[in-house]
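#onboarding

Welcome to the new folks! Below is a worked example of what a typical request in this channel looks like: someone posts a single protein sequence, and someone else replies with the predicted structure as tokens. Don't worry about understanding the tokens yet, we'll cover that in week two.

Example request:
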Amino acid sequence: MLIKGKERIGELFNKKKVVITTHFKPDGDALGSSLALYHWLKNKGLNTSVVVPSDYPSMISWLPGNEKVIQYPQQKEFSQKLIEEADLIFCLDYSSLKRTECMSDVIAKASAEKWMIDHHLDPDDFADVQFWNNKAAATCQLLYTFITDLYQDEGNITADIATCLYTGIVTDTASFRFRSVTSGLHHIAADLIEKGVNNWEVHENLFNNNSENRLKFTGYCLANCLTVVPEYNTAYFIISAETLEKYNIQTGDTDGLVNYALSIKGIKLAALIVDRTKLIKLSLRSIGAIPCNEICQKHFNGGGHLNAAGGSSHTSLRETKEAFLSLLPEYKNILTEE
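Example response:
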């Protein structure tokens, strides 16, 4: 655990205007931590806003407080004003300002203190306060510790806060399946349930709320877009822009697709390569010591965790696929070891 700027922790409740930010295309951990912190600070009497740099999946739009979230592209002038006038900006679930994309410059130029709470590797040195641990399973796990340990305020975790935190933990651990899950994390989850989380309802909202188009899209991709490379224990999806348009794919509809490739017996590395028109997006998943983060950081302008990372490419879909396949021989030893 790294805590930089710990001497500033006591200044939190003296702040007059707080803005909570997270990364582009927020996932459950990003939005969950943002709204959990929003509820906690509002309950403490702080003037608090949540500003995000893009839309996000409908499967997390049910979270308590969702109606308070301000999307920067839709309310640009208002969002800029909030950030410029803030005296504290929380940076949740990202360790580099570039991950906020359209908001990065305005955050960087803001005079406010920046407090980062995050679990991604290699954080940039932009924050006045860093509450960081790359071994944490989720930013929501760190935020729980932030509230309960640093501020000794476990008693003020409401059911809404608990629901937001639990959702982030569930989504960033694929329902407690990753190696980052510890007994301590299960204790946190149990405590959140005791504080009012309807855990079954969270799972229903997250995983049993598909559109017909999304299910048909998934079926099409499994039948037509999946390739297995047995000599490298690798499988990948190639999704064209035309396929996305045909099935009217919305933000979040491709989430989890890469896990189907990884679920194939013997597969150790899986990739989802999608043509988003303006650029090609990649999502990598792996098991064992296969470094998704290294592959994305070195070759695809991205990063992430050892077994889950993302990146992008400005070349064509075909060229991006070939670039990915050309890297497999470099990792042959760990891809093929027993």
